[in-house]
Amino acid sequence: MLVRPKALLFDFGGVLADTPDGRSDWLPALVQRVTEVVGGALSADEITADVTAGRRAYSHWRDALARTPEPEELTHERFWADFVAADWPADARAAVAAHATELVRIWIDRGSAWQVRPGVRESLELAREAGVPATVVSNTLCGAAMRSFLDREGLASLFAAQLYSDEIGIRKPNPRFAHLALQALGGVPADAAWFIDDQLSRGILCARRAGVATAVHVYDGPAPSADPGPPVASDRPPARAGEEAAALGHSANPRYAPDATVPTMETFRDLLAAALA
User: Fold this and answer.
1) Residue 228: pLDDT band with limits 50, 70, 90
2) Which of 36, 70, 222, 263 has a Cα at 20 to 30 A from 243?
């Protein structure tokens, strides 16, 4: 149901901003810093292999957590100590745990590569003119990097609040994520809010669980199929894996079905303008 919104909850990646494909220069920098942190206890090749395996394991873990009612986020320390360095010498494992926040920032902070999606700034300005507060609600291991990006782009002032999973300790689709965001906006009731996300199995399901009035899916890929099959390829986002592919394949299920789907944030801006008219 497209109600006139009294609050807007925006996902970050795939909604507010995109990262161009093919950017991988963060990995050598990360491996070099980890090598320094562990004092040469492991080779660059060993570190590269375990960082790559840890990221893959984290991706599978996120898919699995999307099936649970109240998923929590990993701490920076647990990601490095358990997902990356589980089989490293004890001193090396302790060292990366002690530097976990710094190392996560190197991995996630691709602010120079993120690009604000067309239509985002106009949507936020339209909301501000109408007196509708907005917040960021994003699953991430480093919300600080996203805060910095939005500040550099001059967008931070257009948000009344920003909530990131590593900072609040829970992940979408945990409905408390939406409830905390609405509280941060002054206690706007869920049945008067919009939730804008590109992930059915995270954001849209979070909106459903939290009782948010309008769930808007930002998606420009192929039409959902009854058979989810392999990861779904799309221009934006580049791939859908695991739980999200299954959610796309069963998007008629009311748990996943959005109230509206828009291919671009420019289209979203038009949808928002019509609802505010």
Assistant:
1) very low
2) 263
